[in-house]
Amino acid sequence: MVIKMPKIHSGFTNEVKDILRRNGVGVVPTDTIYGISAPALSEQAVMRIYKIRERDLKKPMIILISSLADLSKFGIRPAGITRKILKDNWPAKLSVILPCPARKFFYLHRGTKALAFRMPKNAKLRDLIREVGPLVSTSVNYEGKPPAKNIGEARKYFGDRMDFYVDAGELDSAPSTLIAVKRGQISVLRQGAVELRA
Questions:
Q1: How far is the C-alpha of 30 from the C-alpha of 139, rounded, in Å?
Q2: Please, are residues 164 and 9 in contact by the beta-carbon 8 Å criterion?
Q3: Host H or E run for residue 130
Q4: Whole-number pLDDT of residue 184
Q5: Worst-scoring range by mean pLDDT, 12-21, 70-79, 155-164, 171-180?
């Protein structure tokens, strides 16, 4: 039996967008490293990533958004100091954990009642998200293995288990800075690629 490998795309083609609109799962270059991505509002697609990647079900994934308005899709409407922090610092390699207690998003927050969001610096990626909706993202590897830095490594890991691959050459950035914002207070959980603007 011949296994048909998914197509490698050189950018965010119409075919890639159509696959994501149909709740597909694929390897997407982000502003830091390659990520396994799928529509964040599709529980079925998100759970498929957990299964494919053998990811710990207790660990939420980051959600990539194109604008502050996308947060409302998750019942999050930042105001005051929190909104100012986001407006002053995004888009950037900055992931921000915000409270999200809604039970219907358990499949995303995994009981933590909070979600991590990033508005990527990469304008083409933001355009993709604007067209297909927010995307979950997790590194391209099995739990405990090194993340794939190129499509060759990604295909060695996941082969035909992905619906598509988007090739952007070698990607090996420092991880995003990770902060939590609660009641206007900032906690830096991981110092990464960017310094926070006060």
A1: 10
A2: yes
A3: helix 123-132
A4: 76
A5: 171-180
Residue type at 41 in one-letter notation = L
**Nearest-5° angle of CA 87, CA 71, CA 188?**
55
Burial 124-148 (b: 16+ CB within 10 A, else e): ebbebbeebbbbbbbbbbeeeeebb
Mean pLDDT for all residues in the chain: 93
- The highest-level CATH class for domain 8-190 is alpha beta
Which amino acid is present at 144? G
Entry pTM: 0.94
Amino acid letter, 94: L
Contacts made by residues 15-20, CB under 8 angstroms, sequence distance 24+: 15/164, 16/128, 16/164, 16/166, 17/128, 17/131, 17/132, 19/163, 19/164, 20/128, 20/132, 20/133, 20/135
Q: Look up residue 75 and give its amino acid.
A: G
Neighbour-count burial of 100, counting CB atoms closer than 10 A to its CB (0-12 exposed, 13-18 middle, 19+ buried): buried
Tokens of 145: 């293995």
> What pLDDT is stored for residue 193 in this prediction?
81
- For residue range 84-117, list pLDDT tens digits in order: 999 999 999 999 999 999 999 999 999 999 999 9
* CA 45 from centre of chain: 13
Kind of pairing between the strands at 114-118 and 135-139: unpaired
Q: Could you identify the residue written with the tokens 């159509």?
A: 18
